[in-house]
Amino acid sequence: MKLGVVILSVRSPRKADSVSAWVLDRLNTRALDDVEWTTLDLADYDLPALRRYGQSGEADAPADLVRWRDDVDRCDGFLFITPEYNRAMPGYAKNAYDLLDAPWMNKPVAFVSYGGVGGARAVDAWRVSIQPYNQPSIGHQVLLYNRFDFEGDTLNPTDRHTQTLDKVVDELVRVAAR
Ligand SMILES: Cc1cc2nc3c(=O)[nH]c(=O)nc-3n(C[C@H](O)[C@H](O)[C@H](O)COP(=O)(O)O)c2cc1C
């Protein structure tokens, strides 16, 4: 199966770089059987605002939107790495989500979040927003606290974080395989 690690901050500098490096390093180390990971970094896509591009296709859709659609479409599930902005997910990330429909359908989502309270409110917002496409969300989540788990933008992961990440990933793989 193919699973996408989706990086949902487009800022520079950003904590997302350190968080995603830790996640990808752990995924590479574990090298789970039959799981291929691909990284979808929103900063690599120049997406328009609020224009839907579903499976039906639009001849004049911008190239980056087509690439975003195809990259999401190829995945069987997702690990969202999300910051919290104004007590929800980043607006840019919600727009990127809203641009697609069928490519998300029925595919599970797990979360690694960060913020003042671990990004918990961003994940709550995501759990609501992914319902229309029947996307199951994984109950466990990795919560990283700006004040305790980072030095500046650099994450200082502990064994406890790694254990939780493993549990979240195992659940994602299990649900995606169903
Ligand atoms: C526009 C904006 C709004 C923010 N609002 C929140 C918030 O509501 N709750 C929170 O915990 N952190 C908030 N933060 C702080 C972020 O947790 C922190 O800036 C983090 O580094 C953002 O992740 P990034 O560097 O990967 O973009 C906000 C940051 C920005 C830029």
From TrEMBL:
InterPro entries: Flavoprotein-like_sf, FMN_Rdtase-like_dom, NAD(P)H-dep_reductase
GO MF, any single term: oxidoreductase activity
Keywords noted in UniProt: Oxidoreductase
Domain of life: Bacteria
Domain NADPH-dependent FMN reductase-like: 1-134
PANTHER family named in the record: CHROMATE REDUCTASE (PTHR30543), NAD(P)H-DEPENDENT FMN REDUCTASE LOT6 (PTHR30543:SF21)
Protein name, as recorded: NAD(P)H-dependent oxidoreductase
Residues in coiled coil: none
EC number: 1.-.-.-
